[in-house]
Amino acid sequence: MTSKDSRKAVIRFEPQGKRVEVELGLTLLDSTRRAGVGIRSECGGRGLCGKCLVVVEEQSNLSSPSTAEVRLIPSEKLRAGYRLACQSIVRGSTTVWIPPESRLEARARILAEGLLRPFELDPAIKRVHVTLSKPSLQDTTPDFERLHSALKKMGFEEVEVGHELMQRLPIILRKADWDVDIVLWMDREVIAVEKKGGERGVYGVSIDIGTSKLVLHLVDLESGKTVSIKTVENPQMAYGEDVISRINYAAFKEGGLRRLQELVIEAVNALIKEACREAGVEQDRVFEVVIAGNTAMHHIFLGYPPRQLAVAPYVAVVRRSVNVKAKELGIKVNKLANVLALPIVAGFVGADAVADVLATGMYEAEDMCLLIDIGTNSEVFVGNEEDIISCSCAAGPAFEGMHIEHGMKAVTGAIEKVRIDPKDYEVEYETIGDVKPIGMCGSAIVDAVAELFKCGLIDERGHFKRDVSARRLLREGGASKFVIAWRDESAIGRDITISEKDVQEILLAKAAIRSGIAILMKEKGVREEEIDHLYIAGAFGEYLNPQSALFIGLIPDVPLNRISFVGNTAIIGAKMCLLSRSMRRIADELSQKIRYVELTAHPDFHREFVDALFIPHRDLSRYPTVMKYISQKP
Asked: Between 20 and 30 A from 458 (CA), which of 137, 206, 295, 563?
């Protein structure tokens, strides 16, 4: 296996069987991107996460193991040929095996729907029928003024026709014999003039541009009916699974911002094409696109430089909603269609969070509400119709498996539920797809920590107790880990475990969120017993066991009947704005009205964070449910 060009090498990836010719000096991670081979890379190739593990038996054509590899890969694995793709530099042709736990070929479980409240259908796009009088020697009114006059009589006071449509206007009117349907945006801009009685419909799309996934709803704007839903993993993940990695790539890699924008635009276009094909809709019948995403995804989609979002004081380019023509972004719908990017609140409280608040309706509730959207950057809101206060919690990607030895995203083969028997410490688990496990996703990791605590295997600091022995509790070189699935049960040929280090990572992530909740509640003067509704949004929250979340202190100790899992409220909020002008007006008002607290600048943050590092919390009085359970244990 050699290349004809001495300056290039041929890399073969197995078990995919893909070959790619690459320049010498490229990393194996860059080579996977060239080959279109999916591989995990949570840190974007910076040698931090250790998830891009590959096996290369013959390493003479690779660089020597880097410091990062020596640190992250156990010595026995290094000797067995394990390498990090992001650290291995190509010196010549070779064959690379991508083990199951490193592959991205499994279909991720993507949450595509959520809570939808009733609201009045009043989209920005409207289709109206107009019959115009024909010109004559007695009436030489120009075409546009003729159309403008007719629309004014119908109540549309100020309408405009853009240059591109104006060029075609005389031909369209005469071919239609002056009997036309007009498609208007916001009652003021004519974006289509066509022959009366067309049966092709008027459509729009709403899109949730998440850090890890894209969700698209194709909607009939005249009936309000969703006619197709499509999802895909965000292709930007090849350049880092967290927003900071992508901001850094966009800021410091030549052409990085343009590349990331192209990737998401290409993915959006593919989803639109697929949704329209499924619904039998022509793409030029899509007249508006509404997008929601965190502030970094929002900026990258629009091509705004995101670098300043990553450094204090974390300033965004724009807060209010942004309208731009689809053709300017390269979105393949009607050329004159509008793209609406929903407004943001702050540098790390984005349009998706505004959509969350809109979809839950907490902004008009009399009761006190707590809304948590759990993710790499988790957003928290406390309030009601009187006032809403928000913050962003830098929880990190531990809940998505990063920095957890056997952690992974919620894909086929991931353990998603865990229960440990308190009598013999044996484990019951469930996997996504009911197949052999290859790792644990976030909901299972939270379960595992809660179960270890319930069973008395770990203490309130997350340390394994030294006076407890169990068949599954392994102690190696002073480090302890608990076996969730034995190697003969797994699909990776190794035990799937949770270690003391893994528990600490989860407690750090938990503390970030819990301290944010505590500070907002303190700022609002709200006690835990005064929370009437606790909304948990997002894919992670949808599959989270609320009892496990309560036991580790991730959420306040509120009655379970007050907790609602509201699903993907980002896509629902975006769809509400697509279908209702009043909803998009409210979204703009919310972005201005919601108060933002920068946690790192708050005087109580450090104390609240340290208190929250305990299981469930240093102040156990906040958790009567947990105290009751502990007191009843035999």
From this structure: 563
